[in-house]
Design a protein that fits this description.
Elements (H helix, E strand, L loop, with lengths): L1 E5 L7 H12 L6 E5 L5 H13 L3 H22 L5 H25 L4 H8 L1 H16 L4 E4 L6 E2 L10 H18 L1 E5 L2 E4 L4 E3 L5 H12 L3 E6 L20 E3 H9 L10 H6 L4 E5 L8 E4 L11 E14 L9 H11 L4 E6 L3 E6 L5 H8 L4 E14 L9 H8 L5 E6 L5 E7 L3 H12 L10
Parallel strand pairs: 1-2, 1-8, 2-5, 3-5, 4-6, 8-10, 9-11
Antiparallel strand pairs: 6-7, 10-11, 12-14, 12-15, 13-14, 15-17, 16-17
Bound molecules: adenosine-5'-diphosphate, aspartic acid (ASP) and magnesium ion.
């Protein structure tokens, strides 16, 4: 069996869904299980609807719900055969009626809880999975819909839920192989349900994670992530267009890149894949002939130090200083206890004897963190910073990487530098305005002579 995940742009329109059907058809013999994201920007639109509801903008959210229905109806009608139109209309009626009631309820209460955010944002994948199932039948692909909430069991941390692997794997194993023997199984990514059956989501971009959970659960031969770029590139194309495609990369490198901002892959995606040693491929649904990126345990050896450069913007840099704590033990413990208490995770850290600098990417509880830290240290924060992170297994055994980084960044103010304990990343913190300059300079420095075995 094979898991094929198609992201939002890959199912954004009738034409895109037709392309997807063609790609899946080409792999029918491998018994594909298809995981789909919400169509286009549907998740963002659902969240906008929720926000309009709590702001009491009734006309606005009603209009937005209508627009979303029109969009789904228009695109779906082009790919759903006449004999299934009644079924399509029923699916759309049921879902949009339910959604409207839910949104009205939230408007009355005037409060948006993580649980109700999940309930609303789940509609994107719930709809797209039905539309794609019906469309596949139109294109001669016998398909069957599976409600992901029946098989993906998560904890209760709504909007960021973690799968309960044991139960989930058991359900996937029990349900999918039998269904996939006859037809192409189509399910929504991103969504699941708690043990009590309450709808949950795995966090933004979570459909990639769904694909790898499913892949591991059914022991798939591969997990294919179909998206809108040719694969993992040597730099974020929205920051630096024209980077090289990385043909082969390790699980550890891919995980690090995803964690440090390469949106093409959800950071948790590789976890289930590594565990069962299943290759993950990143492929372009607009250019299916391109071989993409293969993520495996032992990739093709590479003679370059760096595989790719990732960026994470909107980072907050926190500087904590205490001369009273000079040489005192327990300083770090006290600091981390504060971050732990306010559930704020730290990405990068550098210390000197009396000060600690660290970065966080979610400042939601920064005011509380600052107040608690101020009881024993001086704290200053700087927003709009960015982490630029070089990733490559060879960084650890290539002499002079740090020297090359400083040489390349000689005109950029580097706020912090850190080489991760994994030794496969080297990160610098720069001001948000310097990101493009920094990435460009580092890319020029490290990809002067890309190894043709690894880079395209
Ligand atoms: P999907 O909807 O298919 O999940 P995403 O938008 O989540 O697609 O991820 C694909 C996007 O990731 C690309 O369009 C690209 O802008 C961005 N991206 C960031 N860093 C990288 C990188 N190193 N390589 C490829 N794409 C990247
Ligand atoms: N639709 C969800 C999102 O936009 C999940 C995904 O696309 O992976 O975040
Ligand atoms: Mg994505």
């Amino acid at each position: 069996m094979l898991v094929m995940k198609f992201g939002g742009t890959s199912v954004e329109s009738a034409a895109a869904i037709e392309r997807v059907a063609g790609i899946v058809k080409g792999r029918l013999a491998r018994r594909p299980v298809v995981v789909v994201s919400a169509m286009g920007k549907t998740t963002n639109k659902l969240l906008a609807i929720a926000n309009a509801a709590i702001a009491g903008q009734r006309d606005e959210y009603i209009r937005q719900i209508h627009d979303l229905r029109d969009f789904h109806s228009r695109e779906a009608r082009l790919v759903v055969p006449l004999e299934h139109r009644a079924e399509l209309d029923r699916v759309l009626d049921d879902h949009f009626q339910e959604l409207t009631e839910l949104v009205k309820g939230i408007a009355v209460i005037g409060e948006l809880t993580p649980r109700s955010i999940d309930a609303i944002s789940s509609y994107g994948e719930r709809l797209s999975s039905y539309v794609v199932t019906l469309a596949f039948n139109h294109y001669g692909l016998p398909a069957v819909h599976l409600d992901s909430r029946k098989v993906i069991v998560t904890d209760k941390r709504h909007t960021q839920a973690a799968p309960l692997f044991e139960q989930t794997y058991k359900k996937l194993e029990a349900v999918i192989p039998a269904m996939a023997a006859e037809k192409v199984v189509v399910m929504g990514g991103f969504i699941g349900a708690t043990e009590d059956g309450v709808t949950s989501t795995l966090g933004r971009g979570g459909s990639d994670f769904t694909a790898s959970i499913v892949g591991a659960g059914i022991g798939a031969e591969a997990i294919e992530i179909w998206t809108d770029v040719d694969g993992m590139l040597t730099a974020d194309p929205t920051i630096l267009p024209g980077g090289h495609r990385v043909k082969s990369i390790s699980f550890a490198e891919a995980a690090e890149l995803a964690y440090f901002g390469a949106k093409v892959l959800h950071p948790a995606t590789v976890i289930p894949a590594v565990e069962r040693n299943i290759p993950v491929l990143i492929l372009n649904s607009r250019r299916p002939e391109v071989p993409g990126t293969t993520i495996v345990a032992n990739p093709v050896p590479c003679r370059n130090a760096v595989k790719s450069i990732a960026c994470k913007r909107n980072i907050t840099l926190v500087n904590i200083q205490s001369s009273r704590m000079f040489m005192a033990h327990g300083f770090l413990r006290r600091i981390f206890e504060v971050f732990d208490r306010f559930e704020t995770s730290v990405d990068m850290i550098a210390t000197s004897e009396v000060s600690v600098s660290l970065t966080i990417d979610n400042p939601a509880r920064m005011a509380e963190v600052t107040a608690a830290l101020s009881e024993f240290a001086e704290v200053s924060t700087e927003t709009d910073q960015a982490i630029v992170c070089l990733v490559g297994e060879n960084i650890r055994n290539t002499p002079g990487v740090a020297a090359s980084v400083f040489q390349a960044l000689r005109n950029v103010n580097v706020r912090m530098i850190s080489q991760g304990a994994s030794l496969l990343n080297l990160g610098v913190v720069v001001a948000g305005k310097d990101v493009r300059t920094a990435v460009e300079a580092l890319h020029t420095e490290f990809f002067q002579d890309p190894d043709p075995e690894v880079f395209d």
